[in-house]
Amino acid sequence: MLNYLRKIISYDNPIRMFWHRLKGFIAAARYGFPGRKMVVIGITGTNGKTTTTHMLEHILSSAGRKVAMISTVSLSINGKVKPNKSKKTTLSPFLTQKFLKECSKRGVEYAVIEASSHALHQSRLWGIPFTISAMTNITHEHLDYHGTMQKYADAKKILFYTVSKNCKKGESKWIKDIPHRHAFVLNTDDRFYNEFIDIGCPVKISYGIEQGDLQAQKVTYSKYGSKFSLHYENDNIGVELPVPGGFNIENALAASGAALNCKLSLEQIKNGIESFEGVPGRLESIASPKGFDVIVDFALTPDALDRLYKTLKPTTPNRLIGIIGSCGDRDKAKRPDMGRIVAEYTDITIVTDEEPYSENPMDIMGAVLEGAKMVKKLEEDLHLIEDRYEAIEFAIKGAEEGDVIVVTGMGNFTTRSMNDGPMAWDEREVVREIISKHS
């Protein structure tokens, strides 16, 4: 009955919106509005939210602050980590408020929350007094839910309006002794930047590579990371980021901007960035004894795939092999673009199944394949292999020294949502198993 009602009542129907807001209010009231007792930082955007959230948590904790975190990958309180098994970026309002209540009991000073557009629109974070908000970027995603890019951006703005409203209220007596200031952190390179910068807030830090208040200057890239000069106001400091990609420099800048508003110095931020070890299932590399590497990444959008392959292409010694699928019951319009982008960057493209949910897997793969066929010819440098295990095995069996195989879509997840229910699946363990079998 509940699923039937969800189908016949639109996402933005007043009745549905009231129901979401009511749940948010009940959850916050039940647990006593625990977020009021800590500085709560929200990270939103299409791509990079998870990495930015983890970076910020690490920077703050490495500086000696008491920090908690909710991300797509995991939950942590003062360094004690457990996996997020919900497969949701942002938890339900009751689980979120319960988590913050536990944070309050353990003396947490800062809570970093990865905030999805769905969660913001559905009031899952209602009653949480966000003090700092950071935006990574806004690109094509979730239009099956929001309908248009503008509505998608407007959902993200809810986080910033919350900070704006809270800064007008003044400081809570609970957090006045915790170093912070109400602030926005915004990506100057994002198409919606001007809309966000117009929202009222006393402190706004813009960031970008060679642009903005907070800049990465004199950037050099390598297979293993990047080096740059972190510039803010009149200060500069050299930083070595141990995870590769220009997009991870942007993530580091977003995390640094939030850390500055927690009154950390550039030296403390540098120490945190340089000791950051990455996020499980994000650009995670698994080496084969035969001299090739397999990269497991979560990339789910055309923009994320473009950024990922743009990072890997220049540093790949031999062939770049891409394995691509797409998620069911989600934005269908992006599927051909995803196939086309992977085909443009790779020497060999393999289209396979991912998480079909209630859709016909062949319909999803067919849409991805149509995009890939704009670039490559089927059965030559383009292959359709429905079984995901067989697709990965096909790539690994044919790999040569210096090749890089890229498998996207599942990241750190340990289950796949299939037509007949969840299926146990850890992409990283599958890759290791197949490499071992063929070594």
The portion of residues forming beta strands comes to 15-25%
Count of helix runs = 15
Kindly report how far apart the N and C termini lie. 51 Å
- CATH H-level name of the largest domain... which superfamily? Mur-like, catalytic domain
CATH architecture of the largest domain, by name, is 3-Layer(aba) Sandwich
Rg estimate, integer Å: 22 Å
Number of domains: 2
Low-confidence parts: none
- Structural class comes to alpha/beta
Main β-sheet: number of strands, strand sense, barrel status?
A: 11 strands, mixed
Instruction: Kindly state the number of beta strands.
Output: 19
Question: Brief description of this entry?
Answer:
The chain is built from 15 helices and 19 strands. The protein has helices spanning 2-8, 14-30, 49-62, 93-105, 117-121, 143-146, 149-169, 193-197, 246-260, 266-274, 302-312, 335-345, 361-372, 388-397, 427-437, and strands at 39-44, 67-70, 74-77, 80-83, 110-114, 130-135, 183-187, 204-209, 214-222, 225-232, 235-241, 284-287, 293-297, 320-324, 348-351, 382-384, 404-408, 415-418, 421-424.
